[in-house]
Amino acid sequence: MPRRTAIYPGSFDPLTNGHLAIINRGLKVFDRLIVAVANNPQKSPLFTAEERMALISEAVGDDPRVEVDSFNALLVDYVRSKGVYTVIRGLRAVSDFEYEFQLANMNRKLLPEFEAVFVMTGEDYFFVSAQLVREVATFGGDVSGLVPPNVAEGLRRKLGTPGRR
Fold first, then answer.
1. Could you tell me which of 125, 123, 158, 127 has the C-alpha nearest to residue 140?
2. What are the strands of the beta sheet with 66-71, ordered from one edge?
3. What is the rounded CA–CA span in Å between residue 164 and residue 130?
């Protein structure tokens, strides 16, 4: 029986508990997930692609069903290079759906084999975004309930903030 694999692409700057929830839910549908860190040179991420990959790997542990990788090309080119044409995306709100719907259709236009699977974010994380986490952490706010412990520590080190308890 062939293994069902999907790619979960994103910037993951930083990885949040919402991202982890999507990974865990994705593993209920797929046998294997490739968590692919997008390395967009036009953006100024807080963490390097290598740092984000390390944080993700540490957070998911040694689960053999999860591969962590990075890419710096069009998603359709990355998908083609991996031979995996199904992408999983998390949706938090209607605005996410509108953007992801456009993106999925553009990707399908560029690569007809492309398929997007949308997973609704759980009610515990629908308000969490990496951008908001970075903003709260920058000002020393407590993000411990929003990100895995290793990411909270990484944010404290990177930002030089003590964090609040």
1. 158
2. 66-71, 32-38, 5-10, 86-91, 115-120
3. 18
Residues ≥6 apart with Cβ < 8 Å to 152: 137, 143, 144, 163
Section 67-88 average pLDDT? 97
Please identify which residue in the block is written with the tokens 């998911």. 60
101: left (phi over 0), alpha (psi -120 to 50) or beta: alpha
Q: Tens digits of per-residue pLDDT, 137-148? A: 999 999 999 999
Gyration radius of the chain's alpha carbons: 16
User: End-to-end distance of the chain based on CA atoms, in angstroms?
Assistant: 49
CA distance 124 to 69: 27
Query: Does residue 165 register a pLDDT over 50?
Result: no
Domains of the chain, first to last = 5-159 (3.40.50.620)
